[in-house]
Amino acid sequence: xxxxxxxxxxxxxxxxxxxxxxxxxxxxxxxxxxxxxxxxxxxxxxxxxxxxxxxxxxxxxxxxxxxxxxxxxxxxxxxxxxxxxxxxxxxxxxxxxxxxxxxxxxxxxxxxxxxxxxxxxxxxxxxxxxxxxxxxxxxxxxxxxxxxxxxxxxxxxxxxxxxxxxxxxxxxxxxxxxxxxxxxxxxxxxxxxxxxxxxxxxxxxxxxxxxxx
Amino acid sequence: xxxxxxxxxxxxxxxxxxxxxxxxxxxxxxxxxxxxxxxxxxxxxxxxxxxxxxxxxxxxxxxxxxxxxxxxxxxxxxxxxxxxxxxxxxxxxxxxxxxxxxxxxxxxxxxxxxxxxxxxxxxxxxxxxxxxxxxxxxxxxxxxxxxxxxxxxxxxxxxxxxxxxxxxxxxxxxxxxxxxxxxxxxxxxxxxxxxxxxxxxxxxxxxxxxxxx
DNA sequence: ACAGTCACTGAACATGCGTTTAGTATACTG
DNA sequence: CAGTATACTAAACGCATGTTCAGTGACTGT
Lengths: 213, 213
Fold this sequence. Notes:
Oligomer: homodimer
Number of strands of chain A: 0
Shape of chain A: elongated
Strand content of chain A: under 5%
Protein backbone atom coordinates (compact mmCIF):
# COMPACT_ATOMS: atom_id res chain seq x y z
CA UNK A 1 0.00 0.00 0.00
CA UNK A 2 2.71 2.46 0.98
CA UNK A 3 5.50 2.92 3.50
CA UNK A 4 4.30 0.95 6.45
CA UNK A 5 7.74 -0.06 7.68
CA UNK A 6 9.01 1.37 10.90
CA UNK A 7 5.57 2.15 12.24
CA UNK A 8 4.00 0.55 15.25
CA UNK A 9 1.32 -1.99 14.49
CA UNK A 10 -1.34 0.31 15.83
CA UNK A 11 -0.23 3.13 13.54
CA UNK A 12 -0.17 0.73 10.61
CA UNK A 13 -3.71 -0.38 11.39
CA UNK A 14 -4.85 3.20 11.67
CA UNK A 15 -3.29 4.24 8.41
CA UNK A 16 -4.52 1.20 6.52
CA UNK A 17 -8.04 1.49 7.87
CA UNK A 18 -8.23 5.16 6.93
CA UNK A 19 -7.24 4.30 3.38
CA UNK A 20 -9.63 1.38 3.07
CA UNK A 21 -12.59 3.13 4.67
CA UNK A 22 -11.96 6.05 2.34
CA UNK A 23 -11.76 3.88 -0.74
CA UNK A 24 -14.55 1.36 -0.17
CA UNK A 25 -16.58 2.78 2.68
CA UNK A 26 -16.97 1.51 6.22
CA UNK A 27 -19.44 -1.30 5.56
CA UNK A 28 -17.57 -2.69 2.58
CA UNK A 29 -14.27 -2.78 4.46
CA UNK A 30 -13.79 -5.92 6.55
CA UNK A 31 -11.68 -6.24 9.64
CA UNK A 32 -9.85 -9.07 7.90
CA UNK A 33 -9.02 -6.88 4.90
CA UNK A 34 -7.55 -4.20 7.15
CA UNK A 35 -5.57 -6.84 9.03
CA UNK A 36 -4.17 -8.34 5.83
CA UNK A 37 -3.16 -4.97 4.39
CA UNK A 38 -1.58 -3.90 7.66
CA UNK A 39 0.21 -7.22 8.09
CA UNK A 40 -1.37 -8.08 11.42
CA UNK A 41 -4.00 -10.50 12.66
CA UNK A 42 -7.67 -9.50 12.80
CA UNK A 43 -7.67 -10.04 16.54
CA UNK A 44 -5.04 -7.36 17.07
CA UNK A 45 -7.33 -4.73 15.63
CA UNK A 46 -9.97 -5.57 18.19
CA UNK A 47 -7.32 -5.74 20.89
CA UNK A 48 -6.32 -2.14 20.19
CA UNK A 49 -9.64 -0.58 19.28
CA UNK A 50 -12.22 -2.74 21.01
CA UNK A 51 -14.42 -3.18 17.96
CA UNK A 52 -14.68 -2.21 14.34
CA UNK A 53 -16.94 0.67 15.37
CA UNK A 54 -14.30 1.78 17.88
CA UNK A 55 -11.72 1.82 15.12
CA UNK A 56 -13.97 3.97 13.00
CA UNK A 57 -14.62 6.38 15.84
CA UNK A 58 -10.92 6.72 16.46
CA UNK A 59 -10.18 7.40 12.81
CA UNK A 60 -13.07 9.82 12.49
CA UNK A 61 -11.55 11.82 15.31
CA UNK A 62 -8.12 11.70 13.69
CA UNK A 63 -9.50 12.99 10.40
CA UNK A 64 -11.45 15.77 12.07
CA UNK A 65 -8.32 16.85 13.90
CA UNK A 66 -6.09 16.62 10.83
CA UNK A 67 -8.34 18.60 8.55
CA UNK A 68 -9.20 21.19 11.16
CA UNK A 69 -5.63 21.98 12.08
CA UNK A 70 -4.66 22.02 8.43
CA UNK A 71 -7.31 24.62 7.74
CA UNK A 72 -6.23 26.65 10.75
CA UNK A 73 -2.66 26.67 9.51
CA UNK A 74 -3.59 27.33 5.93
CA UNK A 75 -5.96 30.25 6.19
CA UNK A 76 -3.93 33.30 7.15
CA UNK A 77 -6.81 35.57 8.02
CA UNK A 78 -4.79 38.65 7.17
CA UNK A 79 -2.38 40.13 4.71
CA UNK A 80 -2.19 40.27 0.98
CA UNK A 81 -4.50 39.19 -1.77
CA UNK A 82 -2.41 36.20 -2.63
CA UNK A 83 -2.54 34.96 0.90
CA UNK A 84 -6.23 35.51 1.14
CA UNK A 85 -7.31 33.94 -2.13
CA UNK A 86 -4.67 31.86 -3.75
CA UNK A 87 -2.72 30.27 -0.96
CA UNK A 88 -5.59 28.42 0.69
CA UNK A 89 -6.89 27.32 -2.67
CA UNK A 90 -3.54 25.91 -3.73
CA UNK A 91 -3.05 24.43 -0.29
CA UNK A 92 -6.32 22.59 -0.44
CA UNK A 93 -5.58 21.16 -3.82
CA UNK A 94 -2.14 20.14 -2.67
CA UNK A 95 -3.46 18.46 0.47
CA UNK A 96 -6.05 16.42 -1.35
CA UNK A 97 -3.64 15.57 -4.14
CA UNK A 98 -0.98 14.34 -1.74
CA UNK A 99 -3.41 12.53 0.50
CA UNK A 100 -6.39 11.52 -1.60
CA UNK A 101 -7.65 9.21 1.17
CA UNK A 102 -8.38 12.30 3.23
CA UNK A 103 -10.57 13.72 0.50
CA UNK A 104 -12.50 10.50 0.07
CA UNK A 105 -12.92 10.10 3.79
CA UNK A 106 -14.30 13.61 4.18
CA UNK A 107 -16.56 13.08 1.22
CA UNK A 108 -18.10 10.13 3.02
CA UNK A 109 -18.39 12.02 6.28
CA UNK A 110 -20.18 14.87 4.55
CA UNK A 111 -22.35 12.49 2.63
CA UNK A 112 -23.99 10.73 5.50
CA UNK A 113 -24.02 13.71 7.79
CA UNK A 114 -22.94 12.02 10.97
CA UNK A 115 -21.18 13.66 13.88
CA UNK A 116 -17.67 13.89 12.44
CA UNK A 117 -18.85 15.40 9.17
CA UNK A 118 -20.88 17.94 11.06
CA UNK A 119 -17.88 18.91 13.15
CA UNK A 120 -15.80 19.52 10.05
CA UNK A 121 -18.55 21.55 8.46
CA UNK A 122 -18.90 23.67 11.59
CA UNK A 123 -15.17 24.29 11.60
CA UNK A 124 -15.24 25.31 7.96
CA UNK A 125 -18.16 27.61 8.66
CA UNK A 126 -16.27 29.27 11.47
CA UNK A 127 -13.26 29.94 9.25
CA UNK A 128 -15.47 31.04 6.43
CA UNK A 129 -17.31 33.49 8.64
CA UNK A 130 -14.05 35.06 9.78
CA UNK A 131 -12.81 35.36 6.22
CA UNK A 132 -16.08 36.79 4.98
CA UNK A 133 -16.32 39.47 7.61
CA UNK A 134 -12.67 40.40 7.14
CA UNK A 135 -13.28 40.88 3.45
CA UNK A 136 -16.51 42.73 4.04
CA UNK A 137 -14.67 45.19 6.24
CA UNK A 138 -12.12 45.73 3.51
CA UNK A 139 -14.96 46.29 1.06
CA UNK A 140 -13.93 43.39 -1.12
CA UNK A 141 -17.14 41.43 -0.87
CA UNK A 142 -20.74 42.58 -0.67
CA UNK A 143 -22.54 42.16 2.60
CA UNK A 144 -24.85 39.18 2.45
CA UNK A 145 -28.54 39.20 3.31
CA UNK A 146 -27.96 35.73 4.76
CA UNK A 147 -24.26 35.32 5.55
CA UNK A 148 -24.60 31.82 6.96
CA UNK A 149 -26.24 30.48 3.82
CA UNK A 150 -23.79 32.25 1.56
CA UNK A 151 -20.82 30.82 3.40
CA UNK A 152 -22.35 27.37 3.35
CA UNK A 153 -22.87 27.47 -0.39
CA UNK A 154 -19.39 28.83 -0.98
CA UNK A 155 -17.93 25.97 1.01
CA UNK A 156 -19.90 23.42 -0.95
CA UNK A 157 -18.86 24.83 -4.31
CA UNK A 158 -15.27 25.26 -3.22
CA UNK A 159 -15.16 21.63 -2.12
CA UNK A 160 -17.06 20.38 -5.13
CA UNK A 161 -14.14 18.53 -6.71
CA UNK A 162 -13.59 16.69 -3.43
CA UNK A 163 -17.22 16.07 -2.50
CA UNK A 164 -18.21 14.84 -5.96
CA UNK A 165 -14.90 13.26 -6.88
CA UNK A 166 -16.17 9.98 -8.36
CA UNK A 167 -19.03 11.60 -10.25
CA UNK A 168 -16.85 14.33 -11.70
CA UNK A 169 -14.10 11.85 -12.50
CA UNK A 170 -16.63 9.84 -14.51
CA UNK A 171 -18.07 12.93 -16.15
CA UNK A 172 -14.74 14.45 -17.20
CA UNK A 173 -13.04 11.10 -17.66
CA UNK A 174 -10.19 12.32 -15.49
CA UNK A 175 -9.86 13.17 -11.79
CA UNK A 176 -11.37 16.56 -10.96
CA UNK A 177 -8.27 17.56 -9.02
CA UNK A 178 -6.20 17.26 -12.16
CA UNK A 179 -4.73 20.68 -12.69
CA UNK A 180 -6.65 21.64 -15.81
CA UNK A 181 -10.04 20.45 -14.61
CA UNK A 182 -9.55 22.05 -11.23
CA UNK A 183 -8.47 25.28 -12.88
CA UNK A 184 -11.61 25.33 -14.98
CA UNK A 185 -13.63 24.72 -11.83
CA UNK A 186 -12.07 27.61 -9.93
CA UNK A 187 -12.10 29.96 -12.89
CA UNK A 188 -15.77 29.35 -13.55
CA UNK A 189 -16.60 29.75 -9.90
CA UNK A 190 -14.81 33.08 -9.72
CA UNK A 191 -16.34 34.31 -12.92
CA UNK A 192 -19.79 34.02 -11.34
CA UNK A 193 -18.58 35.37 -8.01
CA UNK A 194 -17.11 38.39 -9.77
CA UNK A 195 -19.90 39.26 -12.13
CA UNK A 196 -22.93 37.26 -11.09
CA UNK A 197 -25.00 35.14 -13.42
CA UNK A 198 -27.90 37.38 -14.38
CA UNK A 199 -27.78 40.61 -16.32
CA UNK A 200 -29.61 43.75 -15.27
CA UNK A 201 -32.23 42.93 -17.91
CA UNK A 202 -33.15 39.67 -16.23
CA UNK A 203 -36.66 39.93 -14.88
CA UNK A 204 -36.45 38.35 -11.48
CA UNK A 205 -39.51 39.36 -9.54
CA UNK A 206 -39.10 39.95 -5.81
CA UNK A 207 -36.99 36.86 -5.32
CA UNK A 208 -34.26 37.99 -2.93
CA UNK A 209 -36.69 39.03 -0.22
CA UNK A 210 -40.09 37.80 -1.43
CA UNK A 211 -41.44 34.41 -0.53
CA UNK A 212 -40.55 31.26 -2.36
CA UNK A 213 -42.94 29.04 -4.30
CA UNK B 1 -44.45 1.17 4.87
CA UNK B 2 -47.18 2.68 2.71
CA UNK B 3 -49.97 1.64 0.41
CA UNK B 4 -48.75 -1.65 -0.89
CA UNK B 5 -52.19 -3.22 -1.31
CA UNK B 6 -53.45 -3.90 -4.78
CA UNK B 7 -50.02 -4.02 -6.32
CA UNK B 8 -48.42 -7.06 -7.86
CA UNK B 9 -45.73 -8.66 -5.79
CA UNK B 10 -43.09 -7.51 -8.23
CA UNK B 11 -44.24 -3.90 -7.97
CA UNK B 12 -44.27 -4.17 -4.19
CA UNK B 13 -40.73 -5.51 -4.19
CA UNK B 14 -39.62 -2.73 -6.47
CA UNK B 15 -41.20 -0.02 -4.39
CA UNK B 16 -39.94 -1.41 -1.11
CA UNK B 17 -36.42 -1.92 -2.39
CA UNK B 18 -36.27 1.63 -3.73
CA UNK B 19 -37.26 2.95 -0.32
CA UNK B 20 -34.84 0.76 1.62
CA UNK B 21 -31.90 1.30 -0.73
CA UNK B 22 -32.56 5.03 -0.49
CA UNK B 23 -32.76 5.02 3.28
CA UNK B 24 -29.94 2.66 4.24
CA UNK B 25 -27.91 2.20 1.09
CA UNK B 26 -27.51 -0.85 -1.08
CA UNK B 27 -25.01 -2.76 1.05
CA UNK B 28 -26.88 -2.24 4.29
CA UNK B 29 -30.16 -3.42 2.82
CA UNK B 30 -30.61 -7.19 2.92
CA UNK B 31 -32.72 -9.26 0.59
CA UNK B 32 -34.54 -10.56 3.63
CA UNK B 33 -35.37 -7.05 4.83
CA UNK B 34 -36.86 -6.18 1.46
CA UNK B 35 -38.81 -9.43 1.44
CA UNK B 36 -40.20 -8.84 4.92
CA UNK B 37 -41.25 -5.27 4.19
CA UNK B 38 -42.82 -6.28 0.89
CA UNK B 39 -44.59 -9.26 2.43
CA UNK B 40 -42.99 -11.87 0.19
CA UNK B 41 -40.35 -14.54 0.55
CA UNK B 42 -36.67 -13.77 -0.16
CA UNK B 43 -36.68 -16.36 -2.90
CA UNK B 44 -39.33 -14.48 -4.85
CA UNK B 45 -37.06 -11.47 -5.18
CA UNK B 46 -34.42 -13.61 -6.82
CA UNK B 47 -37.05 -15.31 -8.93
CA UNK B 48 -38.08 -11.96 -10.40
CA UNK B 49 -34.76 -10.14 -10.54
CA UNK B 50 -32.17 -12.91 -10.73
CA UNK B 51 -29.97 -11.48 -8.01
CA UNK B 52 -29.71 -8.60 -5.58
CA UNK B 53 -27.50 -6.82 -8.11
CA UNK B 54 -30.14 -7.37 -10.77
CA UNK B 55 -32.74 -5.77 -8.53
CA UNK B 56 -30.51 -2.78 -8.04
CA UNK B 57 -29.88 -2.44 -11.74
CA UNK B 58 -33.58 -2.55 -12.43
CA UNK B 59 -34.33 0.11 -9.82
CA UNK B 60 -31.47 2.30 -10.96
CA UNK B 61 -32.99 2.30 -14.41
CA UNK B 62 -36.42 3.10 -13.02
CA UNK B 63 -35.07 6.05 -11.06
CA UNK B 64 -33.14 7.39 -14.03
CA UNK B 65 -36.27 7.19 -16.14
CA UNK B 66 -38.51 8.75 -13.50
CA UNK B 67 -36.29 11.69 -12.78
CA UNK B 68 -35.44 12.32 -16.40
CA UNK B 69 -39.02 12.38 -17.59
CA UNK B 70 -40.01 14.51 -14.63
CA UNK B 71 -37.39 17.06 -15.58
CA UNK B 72 -38.48 16.99 -19.20
CA UNK B 73 -42.06 17.67 -18.20
CA UNK B 74 -41.15 20.27 -15.63
CA UNK B 75 -38.79 22.53 -17.54
CA UNK B 76 -40.85 24.46 -20.06
CA UNK B 77 -37.99 25.84 -22.12
CA UNK B 78 -40.03 28.81 -23.21
CA UNK B 79 -42.47 31.42 -22.02
CA UNK B 80 -42.65 33.66 -19.04
CA UNK B 81 -40.34 34.37 -16.19
CA UNK B 82 -42.44 32.43 -13.75
CA UNK B 83 -42.29 29.39 -15.93
CA UNK B 84 -38.59 29.72 -16.46
CA UNK B 85 -37.53 30.32 -12.87
CA UNK B 86 -40.16 29.54 -10.34
CA UNK B 87 -42.09 26.62 -11.71
CA UNK B 88 -39.17 24.20 -11.99
CA UNK B 89 -37.87 25.23 -8.61
CA UNK B 90 -41.21 24.67 -6.92
CA UNK B 91 -41.68 21.47 -8.89
CA UNK B 92 -38.38 20.10 -7.71
CA UNK B 93 -39.12 20.86 -4.12
CA UNK B 94 -42.55 19.33 -4.47
CA UNK B 95 -41.20 16.17 -6.08
CA UNK B 96 -38.59 15.58 -3.42
CA UNK B 97 -40.99 16.46 -0.64
CA UNK B 98 -43.64 14.05 -1.87
CA UNK B 99 -41.18 11.32 -2.69
CA UNK B 100 -38.19 11.71 -0.38
CA UNK B 101 -36.90 8.24 -1.33
CA UNK B 102 -36.20 9.60 -4.80
CA UNK B 103 -34.04 12.36 -3.39
CA UNK B 104 -32.08 9.99 -1.18
CA UNK B 105 -31.64 7.55 -4.00
CA UNK B 106 -30.30 10.19 -6.35
CA UNK B 107 -28.05 11.48 -3.62
CA UNK B 108 -26.46 8.04 -3.40
CA UNK B 109 -26.19 7.73 -7.17
CA UNK B 110 -24.42 11.08 -7.40
CA UNK B 111 -22.24 10.26 -4.46
CA UNK B 112 -20.58 7.18 -5.78
CA UNK B 113 -20.59 8.31 -9.38
CA UNK B 114 -21.63 5.08 -11.01
CA UNK B 115 -23.38 4.74 -14.33
CA UNK B 116 -26.90 5.70 -13.28
CA UNK B 117 -25.75 8.84 -11.48
CA UNK B 118 -23.74 9.86 -14.49
CA UNK B 119 -26.75 9.40 -16.75
CA UNK B 120 -28.84 11.66 -14.56
CA UNK B 121 -26.11 14.28 -14.42
CA UNK B 122 -25.79 14.20 -18.20
CA UNK B 123 -29.52 14.66 -18.57
CA UNK B 124 -29.46 17.59 -16.17
CA UNK B 125 -26.57 19.11 -18.07
CA UNK B 126 -28.47 18.81 -21.32
CA UNK B 127 -31.51 20.60 -19.90
CA UNK B 128 -29.31 23.16 -18.21
CA UNK B 129 -27.48 23.90 -21.43
CA UNK B 130 -30.75 24.48 -23.27
CA UNK B 131 -32.02 26.77 -20.55
CA UNK B 132 -28.77 28.70 -20.36
CA UNK B 133 -28.54 29.37 -24.05
CA UNK B 134 -32.20 30.36 -24.19
CA UNK B 135 -31.60 32.89 -21.46
CA UNK B 136 -28.40 34.10 -22.99
CA UNK B 137 -30.26 34.81 -26.23
CA UNK B 138 -32.81 36.82 -24.31
CA UNK B 139 -30.01 38.70 -22.62
CA UNK B 140 -31.02 37.58 -19.16
CA UNK B 141 -27.78 35.86 -18.25
CA UNK B 142 -24.20 36.71 -19.09
CA UNK B 143 -22.36 34.54 -21.52
CA UNK B 144 -20.03 32.22 -19.69
CA UNK B 145 -16.34 31.74 -20.42
CA UNK B 146 -16.88 28.07 -19.60
CA UNK B 147 -20.57 27.26 -20.00
CA UNK B 148 -20.19 23.59 -19.14
CA UNK B 149 -18.55 24.31 -15.80
CA UNK B 150 -21.01 27.02 -14.96
CA UNK B 151 -23.97 24.78 -15.64
CA UNK B 152 -22.40 22.01 -13.61
CA UNK B 153 -21.89 24.25 -10.62
CA UNK B 154 -25.39 25.66 -10.89
CA UNK B 155 -26.82 22.15 -10.87
CA UNK B 156 -24.82 21.21 -7.80
CA UNK B 157 -25.89 24.28 -5.88
CA UNK B 158 -29.47 23.98 -7.01
CA UNK B 159 -29.55 20.38 -5.83
CA UNK B 160 -27.64 21.10 -2.64
CA UNK B 161 -30.54 20.47 -0.27
CA UNK B 162 -31.07 17.08 -1.90
CA UNK B 163 -27.43 16.07 -2.31
CA UNK B 164 -26.44 17.07 1.23
CA UNK B 165 -29.73 16.25 2.89
CA UNK B 166 -28.42 14.44 5.99
CA UNK B 167 -25.58 16.88 6.60
CA UNK B 168 -27.81 19.92 6.23
CA UNK B 169 -30.53 18.33 8.32
CA UNK B 170 -27.99 17.85 11.11
CA UNK B 171 -26.59 21.35 10.67
CA UNK B 172 -29.94 23.16 10.68
CA UNK B 173 -31.61 20.66 12.98
CA UNK B 174 -34.45 20.38 10.51
CA UNK B 175 -34.78 18.94 7.01
CA UNK B 176 -33.31 21.25 4.35
CA UNK B 177 -36.41 20.92 2.20
CA UNK B 178 -38.48 22.46 4.96
CA UNK B 179 -40.01 25.56 3.43
CA UNK B 180 -38.10 28.15 5.43
CA UNK B 181 -34.68 26.54 5.11
CA UNK B 182 -35.19 25.89 1.42
CA UNK B 183 -36.33 29.45 0.91
CA UNK B 184 -33.18 30.75 2.58
CA UNK B 185 -31.15 28.46 0.36
CA UNK B 186 -32.73 29.71 -2.85
CA UNK B 187 -32.74 33.35 -1.79
CA UNK B 188 -29.07 33.26 -0.91
CA UNK B 189 -28.23 31.50 -4.13
CA UNK B 190 -30.06 34.10 -6.19
CA UNK B 191 -28.54 36.95 -4.27
CA UNK B 192 -25.10 35.86 -5.43
CA UNK B 193 -26.30 35.04 -8.92
CA UNK B 194 -27.82 38.50 -9.22
CA UNK B 195 -25.03 40.61 -7.80
CA UNK B 196 -21.97 38.40 -7.51
CA UNK B 197 -19.89 38.05 -4.39
CA UNK B 198 -17.03 40.45 -4.90
CA UNK B 199 -17.18 44.20 -5.20
CA UNK B 200 -15.40 46.19 -7.87
CA UNK B 201 -12.76 47.07 -5.27
CA UNK B 202 -11.80 43.45 -4.75
CA UNK B 203 -8.29 42.93 -6.05
CA UNK B 204 -8.46 39.69 -7.92
CA UNK B 205 -5.41 39.39 -10.10
CA UNK B 206 -5.77 37.72 -13.49
CA UNK B 207 -7.89 34.89 -12.11
CA UNK B 208 -10.65 34.45 -14.69
CA UNK B 209 -8.30 33.72 -17.58
CA UNK B 210 -4.87 33.48 -15.99
CA UNK B 211 -3.46 30.22 -14.71
CA UNK B 212 -4.29 28.75 -11.36
CA UNK B 213 -1.88 28.20 -8.48
C1' DA C 1 -58.39 -33.76 -18.64
C1' DC C 2 -53.80 -32.88 -19.24
C1' DA C 3 -49.33 -30.73 -19.90
C1' DG C 4 -46.98 -26.67 -19.10
C1' DT C 5 -45.90 -22.37 -17.60
C1' DC C 6 -45.92 -19.06 -13.89
C1' DA C 7 -45.86 -16.96 -9.15
C1' DC C 8 -44.42 -18.26 -5.09
C1' DT C 9 -42.48 -20.62 -0.67
C1' DG C 10 -39.63 -23.23 3.21
C1' DA C 11 -35.60 -25.05 4.01
C1' DA C 12 -31.17 -25.54 3.36
C1' DC C 13 -26.22 -24.36 1.74
C1' DA C 14 -21.82 -22.21 1.59
C1' DT C 15 -19.55 -18.27 2.73
C1' DG C 16 -17.96 -14.34 5.10
C1' DC C 17 -18.67 -11.50 8.88
C1' DG C 18 -17.43 -9.30 13.71
C1' DT C 19 -16.05 -11.02 17.73
C1' DT C 20 -14.32 -14.24 21.59
C1' DT C 21 -11.25 -17.25 23.70
C1' DA C 22 -7.23 -19.31 25.04
C1' DG C 23 -2.80 -18.99 24.57
C1' DT C 24 2.44 -17.50 23.54
C1' DA C 25 6.30 -14.56 23.68
C1' DT C 26 8.30 -10.37 25.23
C1' DA C 27 9.18 -6.77 28.29
C1' DC C 28 8.78 -4.18 32.27
C1' DT C 29 8.33 -4.07 37.73
C1' DG C 30 8.82 -5.36 42.46
C1' DC D 1 13.86 -13.96 39.92
C1' DA D 2 8.84 -14.28 40.32
C1' DG D 3 4.83 -11.69 38.71
C1' DT D 4 2.23 -9.02 35.96
C1' DA D 5 1.07 -6.31 32.10
C1' DT D 6 1.50 -5.85 27.03
C1' DA D 7 1.55 -7.02 22.03
C1' DC D 8 0.16 -10.33 19.43
C1' DT D 9 -1.86 -14.76 17.13
C1' DA D 10 -4.54 -19.20 15.69
C1' DA D 11 -8.64 -21.07 15.94
C1' DA D 12 -13.07 -21.16 16.59
C1' DC D 13 -18.07 -19.41 17.51
C1' DG D 14 -22.45 -17.73 16.32
C1' DC D 15 -24.77 -15.35 13.14
C1' DA D 16 -26.38 -13.06 8.89
C1' DT D 17 -25.74 -12.99 4.24
C1' DG D 18 -26.87 -13.99 -0.99
C1' DT D 19 -28.29 -17.75 -3.30
C1' DT D 20 -30.06 -22.55 -4.61
C1' DC D 21 -33.20 -26.26 -4.66
C1' DA D 22 -37.15 -28.91 -4.63
C1' DG D 23 -41.64 -28.41 -4.48
C1' DT D 24 -46.78 -26.49 -4.34
C1' DG D 25 -50.74 -24.49 -6.12
C1' DA D 26 -53.05 -21.78 -9.63
C1' DC D 27 -53.94 -20.48 -14.07
C1' DT D 28 -53.71 -21.38 -19.45
C1' DG D 29 -53.96 -23.24 -23.81
C1' DT D 30 -55.24 -27.70 -26.21
